[in-house]
């Protein structure tokens, strides 16, 4: 197997994609060479193409469609598009390849566009992976009456899944008792920590450019002082020429508003107080290793001979997070949790959610943590409006009522929304979900992000896919170690739930004045929950148990057990299993 093939396979594994069919890797390697793409860029584009085409499988047929799409995308012209649009025929692939291009080139009143719309409205074409006729299933009929649109069909892919109940990832296996068979039998106390916690909706979309600048600079100045104090150095203006070595602090950014950051386009921007907000080129050639991304705040030691280019020779140590109280619970605590979407890409029957709740009723954990999206704005049926006579709010309320009504009252429930929830405020930080019916004392509606205290066990949660966004934007050179662990470490070194700037996703709309108030760690968490599209994992990062349980539409959730031994480290006293639903 060639080095190129190995690199592509490694990038696919980061997304939890296994290549099962012969010939796929050879085709990907050939395509990578023909398109002159890096393995990471090729895999990123494949994942985007797969998601936009109903989670297309990585097989020979899928690669053929991807290749056709890429070749058409590079060779297509407006004239050719117009000619092709007049020859559109009804098929299972109608509009899949050229919808975006047609929308870009054809005005709303275009005859070709009108013809295409009429074709789509005149024929009912089943999408790949969906059943064209309703399947009679008594279980789905029950779910339709409570959770789903009345016309929801059961998912074929979900009913044919393999390995249900298998443990696919474990933390601290054999280190402590990992039996989850019995409930601890006591009720825990949950509270959202910090007086600065976001507890109610706020007015957004009123953010002025000046307010954003002030918020970003305020955070940079705070980090400047902390880095200087931690390293025992005095900071200089990074834009003033210096022949000798000086220490500076600044935010990494790109010299271009388009394209990805790279080692040649990197700039370092200082604060208004120390460097009058100026930015200079960042020359990384003398560093033995580095890992940078846009928005990262770095302390650097180096020279600036001309005043226009800073040449670091050393990266200063980041500031560690504050340690909270050391008294941990003496009683055993069990936690279950999962991250949405809670249904498969080809159905709105919400079978995975129903099975998870049945498992909760059986195991009776102390805590159940559910992170959105609950109704995913990117779900194909939601995008097409194929939800029967229900509204999006109905779908969300039905899920909440189902959860509240079926989870045992002895189990505390924590519900965290997502920026991809279609019926919630699409802003980050995101206020708690607002429901118009009583939920009971055992349910906590928390913000995204948030930190909760479970009988003294500190847990930080966010539903944003910051790991995936960082993995696409990070620029590294001989960083060494574990890549996923390094991505998590960026959050701790930046003291931020979302250190990337600008955002790495269209649905991440940061309100910077509120982010400065609610988007940072106040204390080092014992448990950090970071659900991601990247492959599920559990790790010990600097004494924090970090869990990526994957997504429920991919079929995984997690169980965590803290054994309650006094005067012992949380990492030595905790077992985590990631399990197939």
What can you tell me about this protein's structure?
- The longest helix is centred in the middle third of the chain and has 23 residues, at 209-231.
- It is built from 17 helices and 20 strands.
- The two termini are 34 Å apart.
- It has 581 residues and is an alpha/beta fold.
- Helix 1 (3-14) crosses helix 2 (24-34), helix 1 (3-14) crosses helix 3 and helix 10 (209-231) runs parallel beside helix 17.
Estimate the mean pLDDT confidence: 83
Classify the helix fraction into a percent range. Answer: 25-40%
The major β-sheet equals:
7 strands, mixed
Radius of gyration: 25 Å
Strand content: 15-25%
Oligomeric organization of the protein chains: single chain
Kindly report the spatial arrangement of strands forming the biggest sheet. 1-20-19-9-10-11-12
Helix and strand content put the structural class at alpha/beta
Silhouette: globular
Uncertain regions spanning at least 5 consecutive residues: 76-102, 104-136
The number of strands is: 20
- Please count the helical segments: 17
Distance between the termini: 34 Å
Quick overview of this protein structure:
The chain is α/β, with parallel strands linked by helices. It contains 17 helices and 20 strands.
Write the layout of secondary structure elements.
Blueprint: H1 3-14, H2 24-34, H3 39-52, H4 60-75, H5 78-85, H6 99-105, H7 111-122, H8 138-146, H9 156-159, E1 167-171, E2 190-192, H10 209-231, E3 242-254, E4 266-269, H11 272-275, E5 279-282, E6 290-292, E7 297-304, E8 309-315, E9 333-339, H12 351-363, E10 367-371, H13 380-384, H14 392-406, E11 412-416, E12 443-445, E13 450-454, E14 457-461, H15 466-473, E15 475-477, H16 483-494, H17 512-518, E16 527-529, E17 537-541, E18 544-548, E19 556-562, E20 574-580
Parallel strand pairs: 5-8, 9-10, 10-11, 11-12, 14-16, 16-18
Antiparallel strand pairs: 1-20, 2-13, 3-4, 3-7, 4-5, 6-15, 7-8, 9-19, 13-14, 17-18, 19-20
């Amino acid at each position: 197997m060639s080095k190129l093939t190995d690199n592509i396979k490694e990038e696919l594994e980061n997304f939890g994609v296994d290549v099962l069919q012969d010939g796929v890797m050879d085709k990907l390697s050939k395509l990578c060479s023909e398109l002159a793409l890096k393995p990471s860029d090729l895999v990123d584009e494949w994942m985007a193409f797969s998601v936009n085409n109903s989670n297309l499988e990585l097989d020979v047929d899928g690669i053929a469609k991807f290749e056709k799409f890429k070749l058409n995308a590079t060779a297509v012209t407006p004239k050719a598009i117009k000619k092709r649009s007049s020859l559109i025929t009804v098929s299972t692939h109608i509009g899949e390849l050229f919808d975006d291009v047609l929308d870009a080139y054809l005005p709303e009143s275009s005859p070709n566009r009108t013809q295409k719309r009429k074709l789509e409205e005149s024929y009912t074409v089943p999408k790949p992976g969906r059943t064209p006729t309703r399947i009679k299933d008594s279980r789905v009929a029950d779910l339709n009456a409570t959770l789903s649109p009345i016309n929801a069909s059961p998912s074929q892919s979900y009913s044919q899944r393999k390995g249900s109940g298998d443990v696919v990832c474990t933390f601290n296996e054999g280190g402590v008792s990992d039996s989850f068979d019995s409930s601890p039998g006591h009720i825990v106390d949950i509270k959202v920590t910090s007086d600065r916690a976001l507890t109610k909706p706020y007015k957004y979309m009123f953010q002025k450019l000046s307010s954003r600048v002030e918020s970003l600079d305020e955070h940079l100045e705070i980090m400047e002082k902390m880095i200087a104090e931690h390293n025992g150095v005095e900071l200089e203006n990074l834009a003033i020429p210096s022949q000798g070595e000086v220490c500076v602090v600044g935010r990494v950014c790109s010299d271009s508003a388009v394209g990805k950051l790279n080692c040649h386009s990197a700039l370092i921007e200082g604060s208004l107080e120390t460097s009058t907000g100026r930015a200079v080129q960042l020359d990384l050639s003398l560093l033995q290793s580095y890992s940078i991304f846009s928005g990262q705040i770095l302390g650097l030691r180096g020279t600036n001979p001309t005043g226009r280019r800073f040449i670091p020779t050393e990266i200063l140590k980041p500031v560690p997070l504050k340690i909270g109280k050391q008294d941990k619970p003496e009683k055993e605590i069990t936690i279950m949790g999962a991250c949405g979407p809670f249904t498969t890409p080809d159905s709105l029957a919400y079978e995975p959610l129903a099975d998870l709740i049945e498992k909760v009723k059986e195991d009776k954990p102390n805590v159940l943590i559910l992170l959105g999206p609950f109704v995913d704005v990117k779900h194909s049926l939601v995008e097409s409006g194929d939800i029967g006579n229900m509204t999006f709010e109905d779908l969300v309320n039905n899920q909440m009522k189902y959860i509240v009504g079926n989870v045992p009252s002895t189990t505390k429930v924590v519900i965290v929304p997502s920026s991809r929830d279609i019926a919630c405020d699409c802003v980050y930080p995101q206020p708690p979900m607002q429901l118009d019916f009583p939920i009971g004392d055992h349910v906590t509606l928390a913000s995204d992000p948030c930190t909760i205290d479970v009988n003294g066990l500190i847990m930080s949660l966010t539903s944003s896919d910051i790991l995936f966004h960082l993995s696409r934007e990070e620029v590294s050179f001989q960083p060494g170690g574990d890549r996923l662990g390094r991505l998590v470490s960026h959050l701790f070194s930046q003291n931020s739930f979302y250190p990337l700037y600008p955002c790495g996703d269209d649905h991440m709309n940061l309100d910077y004045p509120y982010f400065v108030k609610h988007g940072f760690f106040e204390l080092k968490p014992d448990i950090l929950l970071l659900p991601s599209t990247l492959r599920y994992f559990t790790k010990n990062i600097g004494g924090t148990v970090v869990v990526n349980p994957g997504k429920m539409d991919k079929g995984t959730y997690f169980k965590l057990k803290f054994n309650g031994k006094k005067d012992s480290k949380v990492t030595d006293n905790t077992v985590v299993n990631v399990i197939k639903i």
